[in-house]
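Before a colleague's protein record goes any further, I have to sign it off. I want your independent view on whether this chain really folds as the tokens say. The record follows directly below this note.
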Amino acid sequence: MKSKPFLLSDFQVKMALNRRLLPVKAHFFLFMAVSGPILPYLTVYGKQLGISEVVMGTITAVVPLTFLLAKPVFGFIADYFYEKRKFIFMSLIMSMSLFYLGLYFVPPLNIEMDYSFLENNHSRIHFCDNSQPVSADTSNASVWPIQVCNVTCHNETTLHSCPIIGLNCGQTFCYEKTLPDICNWTDIPEDCHRKCLKEISQNSQLFQSTQFYIFIILMTLSMITFNVSNSISDAICFDMLGENGENNYGYQRVWGTIGFGITAFLGGLGMDFWSDGEVKNYNPAFFMIIVFTLLDMICCVKLKLPKMQTTENILKSLSKVLQNKTMSIFLVFVTLVGVLDGFIIYFMFWFLEDLAIGTDQMKHIKVLEGLTVAAETLGGEIIFFLLSGKILKTLGYGHTLTLCFFNYALRLCLISFISDPWWIVAIELLMQGPTYALCYTTIVAYANAISPPGTSATMQGIIAGMDDGFDLSTIHAVFQKILQKTIVKISQFNQLYVIIEKFYTSTIFNV
């Protein structure tokens, strides 16, 4: 007779908890939906503006270093000014969105073309603007292109086949690789028009451009505010879940994955739909940023944060935990995982676009990139965010971390074999969940489990700073040199896989 009231009461408690956590779920969905249509495309957006892979690699090597300081500092501020943490939190989100929107106003970079047209023993160098095609008479000329941009020939005469490119007049192409051979073009009575989509070898011209520095500042600030907001979101989520609520984190965070995946896909689809040719229109992404930011602000206003136990000395409490040997091993693992995530996040789309150029699939590249993010988030991530609590309960933190490391090695191995960019959709659908989703949940859950009372935001900031800071800058410093000569070749993914596989087989984590 006593069991029935108990079950009813238990059911009512669960329903109350579900309603209490609805704002958390809604925030994760809306917050990640803000970044979905722009964050995965930042590097290729910079590429379209005229920034090379070398310069972009340098940027993404330096920017994450700021996370090492920014995340713990803002986490400490959120813990120290506990009563003001919602205001701090909302201010960071609004700032992030404003920095994203600022990218809309950055014009393409004007870069001097490094083309030499030799005609009658005279060399001519032309100026190329990304948005304005430049005319040049290529009749009876031999062309030594350093890098080839879009070329459209406006006449009725057939262009003699080039052994490297092979075109007919009236067509447009984009061939973004160094061409060491000489291509002879003859019998063209009319002009050809070129439109540059890619930075030329004179990177020094970039550093003299105002647009370049505006882009760098906005990209840096948007990445910092996104990452800091993400860390504080995790801390607030764990505060809402209460003590020993780590295994339920995935049920909340999965909504962020859904929001990110939907807007990333819709953003890519919208860009291709409203774009003409290879120059993409990012207006759909900026429109979605505005809409979802406003909705997230409404959600955050309604978010009721619980009163938590505080500590008199945050730094002293944390120092005891950080001196633990197990914690040191954990931080090493977090750093290595960030290396892998950073390479995939910042360079995979560049890799896909190079594959697409080689296979003549650039027309729908944004759809492919959007599908890739959708496959990652709406496929594997959803499943493993939901299963992560049960996996952690069964395997524990240490064995789960080790499993994630093996999964990353397998993922990189599979990427190394693809020759058609569309294969990446299947790989990411299968592997994003057991790598990123499971590993991310394990890291933030363990960080929360070991953090002293009143230090959750600071601890999440420290862990996230190691994950997104030192490790990302290290991998970018290495791979931007590789990119300078090879763009992103499949062999680099394979080499990284071998390194990770060897490290995995010789390392056991007992966290």
The mean pLDDT is 72. DSSP finds 13 helices and ten strands in the chain.
